[in-house]
Design a protein that fits this description.
3 helices; elongated; alpha+beta; 335 residues
């Protein structure tokens, strides 16, 4: 038997080498590189997702905000009646329907005024400093015709007119309109309330109700009834870390429409101006009556959600921002 064949059974174990410290460190380094690459990919994908979500929020907020905001601006100073337009047409203030106001309330929504009124640079009490705001009045939704008017009571052409007691209503024909508080309605009857109104004459004039006026079914043109809508739009701190665009309808509580709003700027188109002008430039009532379009500039910033900090998804570490401009024409002042 040779010497090689006489090796002990456990002698081969002495030739098996373990992992050296260098090999172990290299393995750990390679493992760290793989894990680091996976983490970097995850973080990159997360940031891309956050940026995409932020842009999506900005686009959705802009779409919703402009859809609702533009609707109110477009309908401002609108009534179901229109004063006959002279030929050739003159300024808008001449063709707008004059409105008698019987309301005793001094609230902002109780004054039809010129159909719209703008505020510059935080001029509206509840708005953020430096932002603009606007007040809008209209009465052209769900209007019904009047079949008769006598003793301070209108008879509508339908019992489903949607007018209830204490609603603010506009009655109008081709000559004028009258704002009043409706009394308790019954069927097609819509009375002028005995409270909340300063008179029952319904006519124009320095003394409320001092000039008698009768709305008829045909004598003064077809008379119409419609509920008055008064809304305010402004930017206000939302209480959860940012500013939001708010809408207030009449005496109702304000509604937060969209968040992430950094700024709102409004300018107006009036005859004779070569560009859109600010509310401060429009100093007389006739100028407000002549406004035919409003330009909205809305600055939006993407946010994660209510309660979170502003999304830091931009290359500069700040939140993604977009400025959106939209021009809205007043439907009732453009033939």
């Amino acid at each position: 038997m040779s010497a090689a064949s006489r090796k002990q059974p456990g002698s081969s174990a002495r030739n098996v080498r373990g992992v050296t410290l260098i090999e172990l460190m290299v393995a750990l380094l390679l493992g760290l590189l793989v894990v680091g690459g996976a983490i970097a990919m995850f973080m990159s994908n997360r940031k891309t997702y956050m940026a995409t979500e932020s842009l999506g929020r900005i686009q959705e907020s802009g779409r919703i905000g402009f859809e609702l905001f533009a609707r109110d601006i477009r309908e401002s100073d609108g009534t179901p009646c229109r004063q006959p337009q002279p030929s050739p047409p003159t300024s808008a203030s001449v063709i707008m329907l004059p409105v008698a106001n019987l309301l005793t309330s001094t609230a902002w929504w109780a004054n039809w005024g010129n159909g719209l009124l703008g505020y510059d640079n935080g001029g509206f009490t509840d708005s953020v400093a430096g932002t603009d705001a606007i007040e809008l009045h209209s009465a052209n939704i769900n209007a019904v015709t009047v079949t008769s008017f006598a003793s301070g009571t209108f008879t509508a052409s339908t019992t489903t007119h949607g007018i209830a007691g204490n609603d603010v209503v506009l009655a109008c024909d081709g000559n004028q309109g009258t704002m009043f508080v409706a009394g308790t309605t019954s069927g097609a009857s819509v009375p002028v309330a005995t409270t909340g109104n300063c008179g029952t004459g319904l006519g124009l004039g320095a003394t409320c109700g001092g000039t008698a006026y009768t709305y008829g079914a045909s004598a003064n043109g077809q008379a119409m009834l419609a509920k008055v809508r008064g809304v305010r739009w402004y930017v206000k701190a939302n209480g959860h870390g940012g500013n939001s665009l708010y809408q207030q309808n009449m005496a109702d509580a304000e509604i937060e429409i969209i968040d992430g709003v950094r700024d709102l700027q409004l300018t107006y188109l009036v005859p004779g101006a070569t560009t859109y002008v600010s509310a401060a430039t429009i100093t007389t009532n006739n100028d407000w009556k002549n406004v035919s379009a409003v330009r909205i500039v809305l600055d939006l910033e993407g946010q994660q959600s209510i309660g979170d900090d502003r999304l830091k998804a931009g290359t500069d570490g700040n939140g993604l921002r977009r400025r959106i401009t939209h021009v809205v024409t007043l439907r009732n002042r453009n033939a």
